[in-house]
Amino acid sequence: MKTLFTLLILAVSLSTMGQSQFDPRLLSRYSEERIAELSEKQPSTIEYWTYYLDHSYMILDGEATGKTLDTNEEVKIKSIGDFNILALGIHMDGKRQKAFRIKGTNQYLILKSSDQFSKEFSRNRVSK
Q: What is the DSSP letter of 128?
């Protein structure tokens, strides 16, 4: 009887833990309550935004490539290896990529077009 009770408690704990795990960067867009609700009712929305966090942009190093981009738009990123694209408050264009100079560097953040990103996201979902 104790074993059955222990297994039941363990199963409930594991299922609760699995539901509460999400990328904390999503908190720039949604509250914890909304994330929990979406995880339960619209998990594809959470999947989309989680994929967006790491796949919606590229970083171009102007010094390494010898390229400079003509852009008047600038973003401030403290750590290029660890930043939250959602916290920058920039948005995709439907058909065209957007380029932003990263303040204080010779690097650029290239935000993919929503068309390009949607195609990549769809391909990723199919390949899983």
A: -
Token pair recorded at residue 111: 């935000």
The tokens for 32 are 């914890």
Residue of 57, 53, 60 whose CA lies nearest to 23: 53
Q: Following DSSP, what letter does each residue of 66-105 receive, concatenated?
A: --------EE--S-TTS--GGGGT----SSS-EEEEETTS
The pTM assigned to this predicted structure is: 0.79
Amino acid at site 35:
I
pLDDT 10s digits, 11-47: 444 444 445 599 999 999 999 999 999 999 999 999 9
Summarised one tens digit per residue, pLDDT across range 1-20 is: 555 444 434 444 444 444 55
In three-state form (DSSP H/G/I as H, E/B as E, the rest C), the secondary structure along 8-63 is: HHHHHHHHHHHHHCCCHHHHHCCCHHHHHHHHHHCHHHHHHHHHHHHHCEEEEEHH
Backbone angles phi, psi at 82, to 5 degrees: -150, 80
Extents of the domains making up the chain: 1-55, 56-128
